[in-house]
Amino acid sequence: PAPVASAVAGISWVHRKATASDPTQHPCVVQCHRAAQRLLAAPPQPKKALLSSEVQAIIRHFISSATSLDVLQTVSMIVLGFSAMLRWDELHRLTCADLSFSPQHMV
Questions:
Q1: CA distance 75 to 69
Q2: Cα(73)–Cα(96) distance, rounded to whole angstroms?
Q3: What is the rounded end-to-end Cα distance, in angstroms, of the chain?
Q4: pLDDT in tens, 54-100
Q5: Hey, which bits of the chain come out as E strands?
Q6: Cα–Cα dist 86/63, whole Å
Q7: Please, which residues bridge with residue 106 across strands?
Q8: Which of 30, 37, 82, 106 is most buried as measured by Cβ atoms within 10 A of its Cβ?
């Protein structure tokens, strides 16, 4: 897709420099550009889900009495994401206001 986008940008730039109308804004060109991006895009690579044993191994590996706050935060996010079955787009948008703690559980 990058070569197609570069070609479209180059054509657009040359026409703007020449104070001519931009042919890349024509609906047919826009539609072809979008189709080329879809057809040439790499297929999504599904990620393998973590197993509970792998999460436990992460905890054992990184957590100690000398663990820094940034490492503790990262491990906490991994555990929270795993236990709540959150996707990254859900997990990285969480704020403190989204969480509620009680002695028995967290919501």
A1: 10
A2: 13
A3: 42
A4: 999 999 998 887 788 888 888 988 999 998 899 888 998 888 888 88
A5: none
A6: 22
A7: 101
A8: 82
